Amino acid sequence: QVQLQESGPGLVKPSQTLSLTCTVSGGSITISYYAWSWIRQSPGKGLEWMGVITYDGTTYYSSSLKSRTSISRDTSKNQFSLQLSSVTPEDTAVYYCTGDPGAGLDYYWGKGTLVTVSS
Questions:
Q1: Under-50 pLDDT residues of the chain
Q2: What is the pLDDT of residue 103?
Q3: Which string of DSSP letters, residue by residue, matches the chain?
């Protein structure tokens, strides 16, 4: 059973960079054809897909966040990470990491971590 756990600071100041890490257990992040995403939910809003890194390291980003978002991975630690630069209070949200095994199978979700952007 694949499990995901987000980690990182719960409070970030405006204009700084938000950094989160997702640690994956129960399976390698390099397994074909998994795709590992970051999704967030701001207070009172729906889920927003931010970007993905695939099993072979290819990345894709939301067009609305592309200029501020970077997703990377550390295969030796079986982790993938999110960096969101120049944050504002509007970036306050619960951030989730997910794993999509493909073939129409259900996603795996982390429990989510609340990040508040405030001075």
A1: none
A2: 85
A3: --EEEEES-SEE-TTS-EEEEEEEESS-TTSTT-EEEEEEE-TTS-EEEEEEEETTS-EEE-TTTTTTEEEEEETTTTEEEEEE-S--GGG-EEEEEEEE-STTPPPEE---EEEEE--
